[in-house]
Design goal:
four-stranded antiparallel sheet, 4 strands, about 35% helix, alpha+beta, homodimer
Chain lengths: ~110, ~110
């Protein structure tokens, strides 16, 4: 998760998850790592990028909307979403976006 | 830049800028702040979110593709892009995406 995601040529989808944490870890760190592992096993997963300062931004990349919907409904992920609302997040916003164009620097050959 | 962006109802556009920095500041911090100020003055600008750990992720939101193109060509921004390639960035990737759907928690009324 600590690199620029090596996604295929567009079109593909991005889920932009922007969040503000509550104070304290309360199990957040372990679950965050587990969710990144679990997401990477899902059908249609293309990659993820994540960073946190005042807000956290996690962008996950997916082949299509069906894959995004299936991941949102995955059982262990649903439990984590519930804990997120109960404990870890003060607020978050999710945006589902279709990547139409991308480019790299240095240019990828 | 330190909050979840209060964007309007979709559709709108997101520019996902993911980067890896070189070492040292070398004037990066001041220019980054200036670029956020300047972006906010552009036509079609809707908001920005930014965080950096191992990678930096800055997502800016725009009303349409024309506004994104105009911002990319803005003179002071062009100079900053040049310095970015010469000095500040080891690598970056830019993705232009159409936000089709979004939701908030707690739900916005």
């Amino acid at each position: 998760m600590n690199e620029i995601a090596n996604t295929p040529s567009p079109p593909y989808y991005a889920v932009i998850f922007t969040s503000q944490r509550t104070k304290g870890d309360e199990g957040y760190g372990n679950t965050a790592v587990r969710m990144l592992e679990l997401a990477a096993q899902q059908h249609g997963y293309l990659g993820v990028e994540s960073a946190r300062e005042d807000v956290g931004i996690t962008v996950s990349y997916w082949a299509d909307l069906e894959s995004i919907k299936a991941w949102k409904q995955e059982m262990e992920h649903l439990a984590a979403q519930k804990q997120g609302q109960d404990i870890w997040y003060a607020a978050y916003k999710v945006r589902i976006a279709k990547v139409e164009r991308d480019y790299d620097w240095p240019a990828q050959t």
